[in-house]
Specification:
366 residues; mainly alpha; 13 helices
Length: 366
């Protein structure tokens, strides 16, 4: 008996499915790539820095295009993410990606483009900030702290990223330079206050509620990454010279807080490694590519940059060794994650061909 060909997924259908289910935090790919580029730039590895810069320049507009297409084609899916307390904070990766890419551009003297990205990032941060907290406040579907996860701290990463780009660009605002410096200091402070709130909730979540291997995912590393970027932002403030006396009077507070944040980020790294061993070795959770792994790579790169910048701000160069070691671990993690992304994408693209070939063979046999 002859039967018609079995319906099979096509590449187009798979791409539509991927677009519909696109992880809202995928801009972490640009964050991870950009911060590694910046780390190698500071440490004098120009070839590696430029190569990663090129990847970021390609990835950022590609992700912007995908995000816009998703909004146009699947507004319902985007809305579902925006009102989900577990996923809404992923959108803050757009803010941080703009700023990290903007720093790359600034380091290469493309300040006009960097300024545009900072303004876009600031606008997105304002909108997402009030929206996400409104979701947390008015969503009645969540009844416990089990909704809290490390990804929430991407909001702090985004806040502090505005400091990293805003401070060096303040002079570009002419007569508004002092205003921008005040805003940048304020953003640094807002980020620290938010960190205190979120890390308290996160600690309660993991200490007093059940956490399984699936939940102990790479987003846990954002807790360290948020402290590291706050360190970097504090060092940036120390390395700049605002004209306002009351900002200069804050230097002792900025100095002490920045050192404490770096110490906390440093202390967290072995703990996060222990969590990873528990997840993959003891609980045997499979190690497979997921877009959340870019949120593991970024903290490693950010720690390398933050440590280097702190060594300059404190004039204590011995800690630069931490940066020179960590940057290579970050690169290894970036390469492993990129290989995982490419292999996962290739496997999905091959799947429709394999299904069609199998269906065709079955049809001929019938």
């Amino acid at each position: 008996m002859t039967v018609g060909p079995t319906p099979s997924p096509t590449v187009r259908h798979l791409l539509r499915d991927d677009l519909r289910g696109m992880y809202p935090g995928y801009f972490a790919l640009v964050m991870a790539t950009g911060i590694l580029s910046n780390a190698f730039f500071y440490l004098g590895h120009d070839a590696l820095s430029d190569a990663l810069y090129g990847v970021a320049l390609v990835a950022f507009p590609a992700l912007v295009a995908a995000a816009v297409l998703r909004v146009l084609a699947f507004p319902g899916a985007v809305w579902a993410d925006l009102v989900d307390p577990r996923r809404v904070f992923g959108f803050f990766t757009l803010v941080a990606a703009c700023d990290v890419l903007g720093v790359q551009l600034h380091l290469r003297s493309h300040d006009h483009a960097a300024l545009v990205l900072w303004l876009v990032a600031l606008s997105a941060w304002l909108a997402l900030g009030y929206w996400s907290f409104a979701v947390l406040t008015f969503d009645d579907s969540q009844t416990g702290a089990d909704v809290v996860h490390g990804g929430w701290l991407i909001a702090i990463v985004a806040t502090e990223s505005l400091v990293l780009l805003g401070a060096p660009l303040a002079g570009r605002f002419g007569s508004l330079e002092d205003t921008i410096f005040v805003a940048v200091y304020a953003l640094w402070g807002i980020g620290i206050v938010l960190y205190g709130i979120f890390v308290t909730l996160f600690a309660y979540r993991i200490f007093f509620l059940s956490v399984d291997a699936e939940e102990m995912n790479p987003l846990f590393w954002v807790v360290m990454g948020a402290a590291a970027i706050a360190t970097n932002a504090g060092s940036t403030l120390i390395l700049t010279e605002p004209d306002l006396d009351f900002l200069l009077a804050m230097r002792p507070f900025v100095n002490g807080t920045t050192l404490i944040l770096w110490a906390w980020a440093t202390w967290l790294i072995p703990l996060l490694v222990i969590f990873g061993v528990w997840r993959h070795v003891i609980r045997r959770y499979p190690l497979a590519y997921a877009p959340t792994y870019w949120s593991l790579v970024f903290p490693l790169g950010m720690y390398a940059v933050a440590t280097y910048r702190l060594s300059l701000a404190s004039d204590f160069r011995p800690i630069e060794l931490f940066s020179e070691v960590m940057v290579w671990f970050a690169l290894a993690a970036w390469l492993a994650t990129m290989v995982g992304l490419l292999r996962s994408s290739a496997a999905r693209l091959r799947a429709p061909t394999a299904v069609r070939a199998s269906s065709s063979a079955s049809s001929r046999a019938s």
